[in-house]
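Q: Given only this backbone (385 positions), what sequence would you predict?
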């Protein structure tokens, strides 16, 4: 199985649910955004506040045994690509809004440019979230896609971003940000880390909290096929901004288990690591997720990682007209000493049998999760007990 990109969102059987109107959410967003300084080269300092409690990591060999983990007092709110239910994903505007809405961590997916710059973007390709077709009409590969890695950072910064679209240019999710001509832009990982540091030094001080980073090394095997080693580039960027230790407000996540082992054992990272878990049919990596979900597989993951990031149906079983039922994965992961951060909670895309986001959050909390990814940080924060 080769490492393949996903052109759309993660697969799920869903039913529609009207999300809360944007309304008052814009006020804290505007206040947070006003704090942004346009200089991306701000001097980095090490975050000073310990990460919210999800278990303390000790450096382990692959053969070591982790002590069982107790669930966090309150699950972490992880802003999935920012407050992407309200603003286009992976824009600094979406990150500022997520910060103001009470996220504990902001997620960065990272793809590497032609000239080796770590760029914050979810897809390996550009056409579903930008105007690349208009700006560079002749730069698609023979397969019809515009790959981010084929462009330099100077070229990429000329693009504008928009809400994710599906085939034919229709919105991928109805009811999300529909305005055009706003001028949203791509940004580098260094720029976002500097931006978060700036917010932690201003809005964070006023609110008495710091927000962390949750960074994904995207498709490392695919990057290597293109001649790029992504993980060292990502780790170097994090280190430039003070994220190097297990106590720092930072997680590194990856779907590729071999790469996660390499990050811990060969590259020597002390940061908290999360093994993302999908379905084997997705083609995310040459990793057997079915095996990783077994007690033996979870113990193997615990030899190098601090937690797992499964998708929702691996944590709860959903069926129309029935209440969600825990699968037992959370308890099995905790027994192996692993935290559990499932993805992705969406108020406008709910699983069968779930009436609204608070009901989904209640079921996940009852299952014992330690955090969750969401497109709607404000709603997850409000729903947590």
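A: Predicted residues:
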């Amino acid at each position: 199985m080769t490492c393949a990109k996903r052109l759309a969102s993660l697969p799920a059987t869903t039913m529609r649910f009207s999300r809360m109107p944007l309304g008052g959410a814009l006020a804290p967003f505007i206040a947070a955004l006003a704090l942004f300084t346009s200089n991306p080269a701000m001097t980095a300092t090490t975050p000073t506040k310990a990460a919210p409690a999800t278990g303390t990591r000790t450096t382990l060999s692959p053969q070591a045994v982790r002590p069982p983990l107790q669930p966090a007092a309150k699950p972490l709110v992880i802003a999935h690509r920012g407050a992407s239910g309200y603003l286009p994903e992976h824009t600094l505007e979406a990150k500022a809004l997520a910060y103001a809405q009470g996220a504990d961590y902001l997620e960065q997916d990272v793809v590497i440019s032609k000239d080796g710059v770590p760029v914050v973007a979810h897809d390996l390709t550009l056409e579903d979230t930008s105007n690349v077709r208009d700006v560079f009409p002749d730069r698609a590969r023979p397969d019809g896609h515009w790959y981010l890695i084929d462009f330099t950072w100077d070229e990429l910064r000329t693009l504008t971003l928009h809400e994710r679209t599906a085939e034919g240019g229709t919105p991928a999710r109805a009811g999300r940000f529909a305005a055009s001509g706003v001028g949203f832009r791509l940004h580098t990982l260094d720029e976002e880390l500097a931006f978060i540091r700036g917010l932690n030094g201003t809005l964070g001080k006023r609110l008495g909290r710091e927000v962390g980073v949750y960074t994904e090394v995207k498709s490392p095997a695919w990057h290597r096929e293109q001649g790029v080693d992504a993980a060292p580039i990502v780790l170097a960027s994090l280190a430039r901004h003070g994220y190097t230790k297990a106590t720092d407000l930072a997680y590194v996540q990856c779907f590729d288990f071999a790469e996660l082992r390499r990050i811990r054992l060969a590259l020597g990272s002390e940061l908290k690591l999360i093994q993302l878990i999908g379905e084997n049919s997705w083609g995310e990596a040459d990793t057997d997720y079915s095996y990783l979900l077994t007690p033996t597989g979870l113990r193997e993951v615990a030899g190098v990682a601090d937690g797992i990031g499964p998708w929702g149906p691996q944590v709860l079983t959903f069926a129309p007209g029935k209440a969600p039922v825990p699968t037992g994965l959370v308890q099995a992961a905790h027994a192996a000493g692993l935290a559990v951060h499932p993805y992705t909670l969406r108020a406008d895309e709910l699983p069968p049998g779930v009436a609204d986001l608070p009901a989904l959050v209640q079921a996940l909390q009852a299952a014992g999760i330690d955090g969750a990814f969401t497109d709607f940080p404000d709603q997850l924060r409000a729903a947590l007990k």
